[in-house]
Amino acid sequence: MKQAHTTPETFLGVGYTRDRAGLPLEAVRVPVPQPAADQVLIRVAASSLNPLEYKLADLNFMGRTPPVVLGFDLAGVVVGVGHDVSRVAVGDAVAAMADLNGDGGWAATGGRGGAYALARQFLTVRKPPSLSFRDAAALPMCFLSAFTAFYGAVQAGHTIYIPGGGGGVGHLAVQMAARVLKARMVISSGGRPQSITLARQSGAHFVFDYKRDDIAAEIAELTNGRGVDLVFDATYNEQGFVETAKTVRRGGSWIVLGVGPGKTTRLAETHSPVDAILAERGARHVNVNLLRYFSEPATLDSEARGLLQRGMDLAMEWATQGLVVPHVSQTIDSTVEAINTGLQSLKAGNGVLGKVAVIVDRDLVAVASRSQ
Ligand SMILES: NC(=O)c1ccc[n+]([C@@H]2O[C@H](COP(=O)([O-])OP(=O)(O)OC[C@H]3O[C@@H](n4cnc5c(N)ncnc54)[C@H](OP(=O)(O)O)[C@@H]3O)[C@@H](O)[C@H]2O)c1
């Protein structure tokens, strides 16, 4: 293993220290991990918030033994690599996603740095110089969610409904469908004026208010009664699932992110009419779940690794081309308080637009922006 000599032995991360303790997260001192053969050790410059982080604190559903440091989206500089790593080298600026059943890279040092995280080689990509650490760190989890949902499913000319086009996953999915995959019509929704605006700016041709409009009727009218070819629902909303399932055309696809209808709480399964609605239309129900890739990383086959690696490459490429660009509505320093406030807002579902970026190391971020 090659490793930089200045790396400390421990760092002060942000995470949970007790099983299913939920928010607030705490500062916790943990060892700087050592990269295994296919892993990269990253000195973290920036990260972003994802709902997964409060959900793991609430439910610890990966079955980890706390303490668990959170902050899975990563951008930073490589300081160590395992002996099988050839895709990146020590000193490279990278974007990456940490294993979801491992530790992340939030530090409790208020943007003064000092966080280190591991990522698999196939989930680490060189960051183009024109892309900031902040924006690079806003991409991995949300971009890969949209990318794996659309991969092989979307064809040019399709009509697509993406509810929640102002959300972290939603706004990237709208951009991808409209600007890269050449969907003929992208329809989206939001429940707040600012999320409706972001969905529009992201390229949606029609955006409805899910709290007021009869979206199924609007979509029926827009598609001459046919329905859309494909729905991508990343809203984790049971009532919303029922509504969006009704908008799929006969023989179309309803793609849901995560565990899917009836299971969103993870605590108890509830009855959901979604499958009956889809069956009536002969529509496919597809579950896309990034967590599945990480519950047993050792069992990932080369096809799955290749897909995620391709996704990371395209995230950088499309962002630098201005095609799929994260909207960072808020940038916070990496403190326990700021992270807890941001996660509380995400959990309440009322204060976050696009992505919230976390600056873990202001010096690294400043050096990179001066050299651009
Ligand atoms: N398992 C996986 O592989 C995986 C991966 C990534 C994310 N996820 C999950 O996917 C979900 C979304 O993640 P995110 O980062 O995009 O969260 P987010 O930024 O909080 O976005 C959620 C969006 O859903 C919208 N929404 C809520 N209820 C809706 C409804 N009834 N109809 C239409 N839109 C609705 C919200 O719109 P308004 O704000 O306008 O109300 C918001 O824009 C989270 O639950 C996350 O944990 C799962």
Please name the CATH topology of the largest domain: Quinone Oxidoreductase, Chain A, domain 1
Instruction: Give the overall pLDDT as a whole number.
Output: 95
Q: Between the first and last Cα atoms, what is the distance in angstroms? A: 30 Å
Quickly name the level 1 CATH class of the largest domain.
Alpha Beta
What's the Cα radius of gyration? 20 Å
Structural class: alpha/beta
Shape: globular
Structure summary, number of beta strands: 17
SS element count, helices: 12
- The CATH architecture of the largest domain can be given as Alpha-Beta Complex
The biggest sheet, with number of strands, parallel, antiparallel or mixed sense and barrel status, is:
8 strands, mixed
Oligomer: single chain
Order of helices and strands: EEEEHEEEEEHHEHEHEHEHEHEHHEHEH
Q: What portion of residues belong to β-strands?
A: 25-35%
- Tally of distinct domains: 2
Percent helix, as a range, is: 25-40%
CATH H level of the largest domain: which superfamily? Medium-chain alcohol dehydrogenases, catalytic domain
Low-confidence stretches: none
What would your notes on this structure say?
The protein has helices spanning 51-59, 133-137, 140-150, 168-180, 193-201, 215-222, 238-245, 274-281, 290-295, 302-320, 336-348, 362-370; strands at residues 2-3, 10-16, 26-31, 39-48, 68-69, 73-81, 93-97, 116-120, 124-126, 159-162, 185-190, 206-209, 228-233, 248-257, 284-288, 328-333, 355-359. The protein has 372 residues and is of the alpha/beta class. The chain has two domains: 2-138 and 326-370, Quinone Oxidoreductase, Chain A, domain 1, CATH 3.90.180; 143-288, 3-Layer(aba) Sandwich (Rossmann fold), CATH 3.40.50.720. Strands 1, 4, 6, 7, 8, 9, 16 and 17 form an eight-stranded mixed beta sheet that branches. A six-stranded parallel beta sheet has the order 12-11-10-13-14-15, sandwiched between helices. Strand 10 (159-162), helix 4 and strand 11 form a beta-alpha-beta unit. Helix 3 (140-150) packs across helix 4 (168-180) and helix 3 packs across helix 10. The longest helix is centred in the C-terminal third of the chain and has 19 residues, at 302-320. NADP nicotinamide-adenine-dinucleotide phosphate binds at residues 50-52, 55, 141-142, 145, 163-164, 166-170, 189-192, 195, 210, 234-237, 240, 257-258, 289-291, 346, 352. This is Enoyl reductase (ER) domain-containing protein. GO terms for molecular function: NADPH binding; oxidoreductase activity, acting on NAD(P)H. Residues 22-358 form the Enoyl reductase (ER) domain. Pfam families: ADH_N (PF08240), ADH_zinc_N (PF00107). Keywords: NADP, Oxidoreductase.
